[in-house]
UniProtKB/TrEMBL annotation:
Keyword Glycosyltransferase listed: no
Residues at the catalytic site: K192
Record has Magnesium as a keyword: yes
Entry protein name: Ribose-phosphate pyrophosphokinase
Binding residue positions for Mg(2+): H130, D169
Organism this protein belongs to: Candidatus Manganitrophus noduliformans
Role this protein plays: Involved in the biosynthesis of the central metabolite phospho-alpha-D-ribosyl-1-pyrophosphate (PRPP) via the transfer of pyrophosphoryl group from ATP to 1-hydroxyl of ribose-5-phosphate (Rib-5-P).
Compartments it resides in: Cytoplasm
Length: 312
């Protein structure tokens, strides 16, 4: 087998270290820095010729810097004669710009996909894309994993009273239904009307939530407007305990204040995006690690084994 090597940008070094620990390998040596004018400089500090290389980089805040780091890392590895390069992107930024929903707007998720392939990536490994069809934007293989097993394992150990899984909008119904089926609990849906970017208005709740524990499930929490309004609407309808769960804790703008003030008892997220102290500001946040999930996928891809059992 080719030598397995793992490199990281600056977006999520803690997660990368956990993945290395799972795989029992050392992190690859690379210099990732910036010049005084902001240009990114990268140098691979070890031999990668003929190696099977995985580059771990979430395209989280600052999004554009982290995307450029990823592209330059891939290019540096390609020019250093790595045999195969897989871009491991736990959080794929720009995923919400996946279609033309207004006149004269770009499909930026496609632009980013083209950049990654053009830079020299042979494969992409990612977690919970905002829209599954983004896989089709790539002209290289994409392994699209879900954080469901990690979240399910946590919630199965919690004691709930007549739990109901709630989708905060129509787009998340499939995710919430699959989760509710695995937990063997009820399902409710919130009819959400969006008034503009990062602005929503809750309209109706479809399903019975009175006197029941609630799990609001989404793929990401950005400004937390959707989650906060959903929780307030559900509480008004007579729900008991409310817990929120998501894969990607973007938590931008007023998110932490909204979550702190919302009638939510716990917010469970994964470490696809590092919180960098945000969990200390909002004490409701619980962080779960997806290192073993990504590590197992990397191991199987390297060994050319089946990854399909991880797509649940």
């Amino acid at each position: 087998m080719r030598r397995l090597k793992l490199f990281s940008g600056n977006s999520n070094p803690v997660l990368t270290k956990e993945i290395c620990d799972y795989l029992g390998i050392s992190l690859g040596h690379a210099v990732v820095s910036t010049f005084s004018d902001g240009e990114i400089f990268i140098k691979i500090d070890e031999n990668v010729r003929g190696s099977d290389v995985f580059v771990v980089q979430s395209t989280s805040e600052p999004v554009n810097n982290h995307i450029m780091e990823l592209l330059i890392l891939i290019d540096a590895l390609r020019r250093a004669s790595a045999e195969k390069i897989t871009a491991v992107i736990p959080y794929y930024g720009y995923a919400r710009q996946d279609r033309k929903d207004q006149p004269r707007v770009p499909i930026t998720a496609k632009v980013v996909a083209d950049l990654i392939a053009t830079a020299g990536a042979d494969r992409v490994l990612t977690i919970d894309l905002h829209a599954g069809q983004i896989q089709g934007f790539f002209n290289i293989p994409v392994d699209h994993l879900y954080a469901t097993p990690v979240l399910l394992d946590y919630f199965r150990k919690k004691k709930f009273n007549d739990l109901v899984v709630v989708s905060p909008d129509a787009g998340g119904v499939e995710r919430a239904r699959a989760f509710a089926k695995r937990l063997n609990v009820g399902l409710a849906i919130i009819d959400k009307r969006r008034e503009g970017p990062n602005r929503t208005k809750i309209m109706n709740i479809i399903g019975d939530v009175v006197g029941r524990d609630i799990l609001i499930l989404d793929d990401m929490i950005d400004t937390a407007g959707t989650i906060a309004q959903a929780a307030a609407a559900i509480k008004t309808k007579g729900a008991a305990r409310i817990v929120a769960g998501c894969t990607h804790p973007v938590l931008s703008g007023p998110a932490l204040q909204r979550l702190s003030e919302a009638p939510i008892d716990e917010i469970v997220v994964t470490n696809t995006i590092p919180l960098k102290g945000k969990d200390q500001i909002c004490k409701k946040i619980t962080v779960l690690s997806i290192a073993s999930l990504i590590g197992e996928a990397i191991k199987r891809i390297h060994e050319e084994a089946s990854v399909s059992s991880l797509f649940v």
